[in-house]
């Protein structure tokens, strides 16, 4: 760059010399060419962005910023002083008021900052360090007095490292860790998962988790309360440091909103008495789900599934039967359709679609209809159940747009599947044992026994393996290939919806000796699991759903709205809006951007930072209609009592912040260390000549003078 700049200046000087020589060495031309050389030289120098730095004494003292943690976890009483347990906060206050600070050098100034809980609860130690460093630029040290427990914002370790880098090591971060690094005795109700809504007369499973933080076995009881009444309880034995996962089954015979509480009694010696109870709300509704069953012939699986769904008053069944021996589509009953629904609004009204032994063949599905089904699943959150049969017609769906939705890869060499002389059996996988779909009995141990006792099957689909991203719930107990045992019951998310693959056509045989006990319980759970997301809030022309359905404090929530006009066409608006009202009554408007114009889908993401129930109201972008949903933000306050102090975090903060860790009784030592640090209250000033207004003005003036000089010299 230097060579190029020098060459450019020499070239300008050379051409100026030639111009002066050609003019007969006139004096006026010499002045013009000198101006030209000067302006070009100045322009080239400015391209190097020259600047001048100098130091100015600010006259300020160097600050020692003491950040005292005053968040919820600091109320934990686990500090032993004179044989008595006192709170971490009490010790932190005594450190901030320690007389040793009075010995601080007069060139230094102590500044106290309280680190309080962030909005919505939680501790943001990293953010507190960042804000303190920005506010006190001349600080020579930051002292963090805390238990190191944080759950909001950036890591304090990362913040300390960035601070040390920005200051060039001038401002160091010291730490004073407080609290015990060991967990205090406690029985903790870790979680209780209550669904957002349920159905009148249908059981609701409420899983819960307990932890024992005592150093000995504990016998406790867990109870379930509906509003103010206890409805169930369980005795639980917890091993030392053990965990227990259990569940209640509850149902309501009437619609409404209920407060469901899971609690365990407070033990006499418990340190934290705030984590033994969780209360959540559930909305119980009258149910009316719409299901479409499509098959190529009235096989046994089709018949028993249709009959079972027709007996359920909460399900509206429509059937489309492509029977090869019938003159037209249908079967003669009121639930049969004469043709595939062409109206987008009619198609979008179905919650679950069962595809049996059908394919893209003459007289059955078309390529266009396969594309519609995919759009329903991915955009409208419609559930899709794939139930192949012995005719092997579903293999023709693989090349269509539905092929990407299959949770498994099919073996094209045996499209009609594999028959067995001896009955095969399902074997639940690890995820299958925990899944709601496979819960044929409320007790996990009994459920395992039920699956082992189910009647077997004599045919299964030509499955090779499960696709990546799929969840295998059950495999063939006996058949396997190079990928392992054959997956027969597999689920997979697809856009906003879900897909389930059932690789056997003999679920109807589960009725043997028990009627619908297991057969319909299984399919009923599948239908409601698939329809759950899209039925969170339903209006005449709109649906509003959100994920996760039980968001935690500060967790990102994805909103999804399906909006139709009153004439049944998808909305073509660019934006839809949802108004949130927080538990404290604060309103906030969230805009949802259009994602898909064919189905009228709008999406957005937001964060909810208060625990409790939010009201979310979706407003139609072009019509005067709304639909509302209740979003229960789960979890206790971000800061909890009884958790171990994070001494590891505090030591790491001091290390990367180029400081030192001091014990609570070492404040005099810390002050002595600070007194030996030279304060640096000066600041650096920088003049950037390449963009200075005076230089710009001088360049303009020089160009003006050059233009005048050329006229004066005779137009050279």
UniProtKB/TrEMBL annotation:
InterPro entries: Class_I_gatase-like, Ig-like_fold, vWFA_dom_sf. Gene3D superfamilies: 3.40.50.880, Immunoglobulins, von Willebrand factor, type A domain. This is VWFA domain-containing protein.
